[in-house]
Structure formats: structure tokens, C-alpha cells
Write a structure and sequence with these properties.
The protein is α+β, with helices and mostly antiparallel strands. It has one domain: 3-Layer(aba) Sandwich (Rossmann fold). It is built from 4 helices and 2 strands. It has a two-stranded parallel sheet. It is elongated and about 45 Å long.
Length: 82
Amino acid sequence: MTRVLAKELGPKRIRVNAINPGSVETEARTNSASSAARRSSSHAQRSDGWDSPDNIASVAVFLAPASGWMMGETIAAGGGYS
């Protein structure tokens, strides 16, 4: 979808890119101890296995200056979990 939109909107000088986050901590997931336990053994950076919305936002801010040359890309931001 990102690439299709990029091709359609590119001529109008609208850049389209996407951030593909890993598992993001939400209120519902915070209350689910069993799902956190399943992911904690294979997550590279966090012992609880979940990322925070602030970390995903920081990826967007980090990429913003470079996004002028990026078009139709999907950036994986999973904190080392893949």
C-alpha cells in the first residue's frame, strides 16, 4: 500500500513512507502477563518484550530530516525483535 500511494502521490510532491513497529505496549497488552512472558525470551532490547509509543515516535523524528530522499519505503522499528 505504501508503494502504491507513493507512485500515485509522488507526482504531486507528496512523500509516502511507513514505519512498521514491533509489538507496541498498550493498556490492553500491559494487563496481559502471559503474552509478555512469551516474547521476553526472544526480544533483544527489552525484557518485557514490548516497545513504547514514544520509541516509535522517536523513529519518525529521527527519519524526518532524511525523508526527502525516501519514497515508498517501509522502515522496520521492532527494537531488535524480528
